[in-house]
Amino acid sequence: MGWIGALWGLLGVLSLLGCAIYRLAPRALEALNMELTTLHWIVLVVWVLFMLVAEGYRGFQKKFSPRTAARIKHVRDHPKVLHVILAPLFCMGYFHAQRKTRIIAFALTFGIVLLVIMVKFAPQPWRGIIDAGVVLGLTYGVISLLILTARALFSADFPHSPEVPESTDGN
């Protein structure tokens, strides 16, 4: 049951991220196919670099991906029926997580929904420029999640905590 939960957790998280990439990429490509001014190109390059560092590296590689990979490993090693059934939500830290982790999960979700609503009102090419940065940041995040999950599941030592309430030793 543990491997089923781990696989379901990973695939659920990847599906959520992949769906966002799939929905946003056409708008980004649409903007790139437009006649962009010098200002558009400068903003695009700066925004993409910012999103790769802020979302991809700092958000995903340093925070979300290690914790999520540790929680995927935790559900494999300590399967509970509810954790396996709701593995994607468990792995993202929505429940059975330290208070800080739950607050971050819900606050980020709320913030992302709010930003998505606001960006819908931006005209092209600005909307596409924003989406291009988000797509690249999410893609970086997916790659980091896959690499860290492989390390968590197939190496003897994974130094990141799953941040579950009863755990102080990383298990």
Description:
This protein has 171 residues and is mainly alpha-helical. Helix content is 77%, strand content 0%. The chain contains six helices and no strands. Helix 1 (2-32) runs antiparallel to helix 2 (38-77), helix 1 packs antiparallel against helix 6 and helix 2 packs parallel to helix 6. It is elongated and about 55 Å long. The two termini are 17 Å apart. Residues 167-171 have low confidence and may be disordered.
Which spans have pLDDT < 50 for at least 5 consecutive residues?
167-171
The shape is elongated
Approximate strand percentage: under 5%
Q: Tell me about the biggest sheet?
A: none
Specify the number of helices: 6
Total strand count, please?
Answer: 0
Structural class: mainly alpha
End-to-end separation: 17 Å
**Could you report the average pLDDT, rounded to the nearest whole number?**
94
Proportion in helices: over 70%
Give the H and E element order: HHHHHH
Question: What Rg, in angstroms, do the CA atoms define?
Answer: 18 Å
